[in-house]
Design a protein that fits this description.
Layout: E1 2-7, H1 13-24, E2 28-33, E3 48-56, E4 59-60, H2 62-70, H3 72-75, E5 79-85, H4 90-100, H5 103-108, E6 111-114, E7 116-119, H6 126-136, E8 142-145, H7 147-157
Parallel strand pairs: 1-2, 1-3, 3-5, 5-6
Antiparallel strand pairs: 3-4, 7-8
Helix pairs in contact: 1-7
Length: 158
């Protein structure tokens, strides 16, 4: 099986999750970072297309949304899996997942994953620290990538 992982990462957490995911997937796996500004990949040769991103300022990266819009028709004829990195949990994380990916794609997906997230509070500017503190009530580093969720997701992709 030939798989393509297409993702965008704002501060490196999603990229880290993709590297972990690659260890659990079988077959040939190609990885494409949408933030590098290169043309979008051709998805036709792939049996499985995995799409992921992270929540930044309440939304998934626009490169992910754009990729889905451009490949909407082709994605309908593919095995698709979706994942999201976010520091929120439970119903809040589920709500962000629903906002991040269109319903037709979520319903078609063979695997939907919430991989947790990271927020390196200590590396944020004072303004961003203030915003994060006010919006999320977080005032320290949060490191919670969910390795089990990534493993379970990969198992569903087989």
């Amino acid at each position: 099986m030939r798989s393509l992982i297409v993702y965008a990462s704002e501060h490196g957490t999603t990229e880290k999750a993709v590297r972990i995911l690659c260890r659990y997937l079988s077959g040939e796996v190609d990885v494409w970072c949408l933030k590098k500004g290169e043309p979008y990949p051709n998805i036709e040769p792939y049996d499985l297309v995995i799409i992921g991103g992270s929540i930044y300022a309440g939304l998934i990266q626009r490169q992910v949304t754009r990729f889905i819009e451009i490949h909407r028709k082709a994605l309908r004829n593919k095995r698709v899996a979706l994942f999201l990195c976010c520091i929120l949990e439970g119903s809040q994380a589920n709500h962000q997942f629903e906002r991040a990916f269109p319903s037709y794609l979520r319903n078609q997906s063979i695997a939907n994953g919430l991989f947790g997230g990271e927020l390196i509070y200590s590396q944020l500017s004072m303004l961003k620290q203030l915003m994060v503190s006010n919006m999320l009530g977080i005032n320290k580093d949060v490191l919670q990538i969910d390795l089990n969720a990534i493993y379970v997701f990969a198992e569903h992709c087989k």
